[in-house]
Amino acid sequence: MPKSINRTYSRYTREATRLLGQMIKLKRTKRKITAKDLAERAGISRGLLQRIEKGDLKCEIGVVFELATLVDIKLFDADNSSLTGHINRTEETLALLPKHVRNTKEVDDEF
Amino acid sequence: MPKSINRTYSRYTREATRLLGQMIKLKRTKRKITAKDLAERAGISRGLLQRIEKGDLKCEIGVVFELATLVDIKLFDADNSSLTGHINRTEETLALLPKHVRNTKEVDDEF
DNA sequence: TTATTATGATTCATATACAGAGCATTAATA
DNA sequence: TATTAATGCTCTGTATATGAATCATAATAA
Q1: What letter would DSSP give residue A37?
Q2: B75 and A16: CB-CB below 8 Å?
Q3: Which of A21, A48, A49, A71 has the fewest Cβ atoms nearer than 10 Å?
Q4: CA-CA distance, A76 to A78, in Å (whole number)?
């Protein structure tokens, strides 16, 4: 039973989401694609596209990334179009680290 | 009434989301922060953190970005910590473009 | 080894994000 | 100018993501 949720977001989070939405709108406009058309292409409603372009924090990340992909925005600047290499390398690094993290009870430098 | 939804995602979208989740887990592990602790810090449940680290596409973008921020991942490589400049510049560019996009009925180069 | 904590996975109830429709306003073209 | 499509809003019902609880397993530290 999720208690009524009221999240707080850092400024950076809000700005990053806002910027991504703006970039989508910018690219869409430059390409002369209507909101209706892009929404259809992404399989979402026009209303949702509007919220995303405004930087709404509560939208599915998959949909936002899909829109970015459709208008040709490169997330994670990678030379090639595939992120598989990145993923594999991260996976390997992760495999070398301890599987569990032990909580040192001292007040540490976590944050 | 949302009809039962079944989205499709491009490979790039899936990989980008997956990579971001992995990076969060990697940074968290390197810093020896437990999943429980990071979840608490972000104001979310441990289950949700798990889904995000696995690359679940249906999580709120705000929460994912907040986690990334907490473990010090830079989205949109910007020299300074603020994205305000970026936002303003995008805003200005957008202001110069036509407010409405007109749909040319020809089959065009949209995609 | 043993004790204890972290992780992974599942289930359920509910808060909420979504699609769809409608309406008013704006602005591009003819 | 007039026409008409695009955009920006609201609102409502419902599909679904989330918090909480639980259990099993893994793995760290003593």
Answers
A1: H
A2: yes
A3: A48
A4: 6
Residue B62 CB contacts under 8 Å (≥ 6 apart), including other chains: A7, A9, A13, A14, A17, A57, A58
Strand C nucleotides where any atom sits below 7 Å of a protein CB: 5-22, 26-29
Using pLDDT thresholds of 50, 70 and 90, give the confidence band for residue B2.
confident
Which residue from A6, A14, A56, A60 is spatially nearest to B59, judged by alpha carbons? A60
Question: Does residue A89 carry a pLDDT above 50?
Answer: yes
Which of B17, B19, B62 is nearest residue A57 as measured by Cβ atoms? B62
User: What are the pLDDT digits (tens) for A10-63?
Assistant: 999 999 999 999 999 999 999 999 999 999 999 999 999 999 999 999 999 999
Pull the structure tokens for residue B79: 């020299």
Is A48 an 8 Å CB contact of chain B? no
Measured CA to CA, the distance from residue B96 to residue B77 in angstroms comes to: 25
Q: Considering the entire predicted model, what is its pTM?
A: 0.94
Can you give the C-alpha Rg of chain B in angstroms? Answer: 19
Is there contact between A85 and strand C, defined as CB under 7 Å from any strand atom? no
φ and ψ at residue A61, rounded to 5 degrees: -65, -30
Give the closest residue to B10 by CA, choosing from A20, A21, A43, A46. A43
